[in-house]
Write a structure and sequence with these properties.
This protein has 288 residues and is an alpha/beta fold. 44% of the residues lie in helices and 15% in strands.
């Protein structure tokens, strides 16, 4: 992301979510606010999607990852989790579609420039900011997001659910692992859904490798190059070493098979992980 500017990749992801509502009738992921938050740019996103068939794979993966993450978040809320954190929220609309509940807080954490642009768009679209939405400005590469969350009212001793989509590929490997380590260290326990990309050479299909190269060139030209790639077994091992004791990993085909009758062979080497870590035993919370 270029200094002082909102994220262009966040805008692009929002465009894919909006186009999915029109071109696939929201088959994988229904978001009635996806078009509204884009305003005048919604039609441009739809036109691009119609005129560039190669965009379909990425669009479907973005829809699938949102559906998977939100289903897991709703399940966590049903179990009693009242702290939802959307890391790198971009133009995501989850908080604005979520019914208010007692003590529920949705912390949207993002770069201040991106956050300011989002709130401008919300106001322009007449989308109300619910009481449970808490905006937290943070530069992930330079600040501790846990510290910024805590200052905003986040309670580290209570369970939390994290949504982290469309972000890890644009950070350094070290920044990604530091974020996961910080979440694993939360004493109240945590669950996270995030996506990541595998190395180019690990992608078997030539069409998917071509799609990755195309995406990499596009985001690099926008000033947000792809940076972090992960080997799936090594990443799962790293999560286990951090203490995540429940790890579920899925590719786009597996997620599509869950939500629709026809699997999709898409994603350009992107995968999803849901990882959870139980809270520390009460007897250990007071130890130093």
């Amino acid at each position: 992301m270029q200094e002082g500017q909102f994220s262009r990749t966040a805008l692009g992801a929002a465009g894919h979510r909006a186009a999915h509502q029109v071109l696939e009738d929201g088959r994988f992921f229904a978001d009635p606010l996806a078009l509204s938050i884009l305003g005048d740019e919604a039609q441009e996103a739809i036109d691009k999607a119609r005129n560039e068939p190669l965009r379909r794979g990425l669009r479907l993966f973005i829809a699938l990852r949102s559906r998977f993450a939100e289903d897991a978040a709703h399940a966590a809320i049903a179990r009693g989790t009242r702290q939802i954190v959307v890391l790198g929220a971009g133009l995501d609309t989850f908080a604005y579609r979520l019914a208010p509940q007692a003590d529920l807080h949705v912390f949207e954490i993002d770069h201040p420039a991106t956050q300011a642009e989002k709130r401008r768009r919300l106001a322009a679209a007449d989308i109300a900011e619910p009481a449970h939405a808490v905006y937290v400005g943070c530069d992930f590469e330079r600040e501790s997001f846990v510290d910024t969350l805590t200052r905003a009212g986040f309670d580290k001793t209570r369970p939390a659910f994290f949504i982290w989509l469309g972000v890890t590929a644009y950070l350094t490997h070290e920044a990604v692992m530091a974020t996961l380590a910080a979440i694993a260290a939360l004493p109240g326990g945590a669950e996270i859904v995030f996506d990541y990309v595998v190395p180019l050479e690990a992608i078997e299909r030539a069409s998917a490798r071509a799609a990755r190269r195309q995406l990499a060139a596009k985001v690099a030209a926008a000033g947000e190059p792809l940076r972090a790639e992960f080997d799936p077994p090594a990443l799962r091992a790293a999560l286990a070493a951090l203490g995540f004791n429940e790890i579920e990993e899925r590719g786009s085909e597996e997620i599509a098979a869950r939500y629709g009758p026809k699997p999709t062979r898409r994603g350009a080497g992107a995968r999803l992980i849901r990882a959870a870590k139980a809270p520390r035993a009460a007897s250990s919370l007071g130890r130093r």
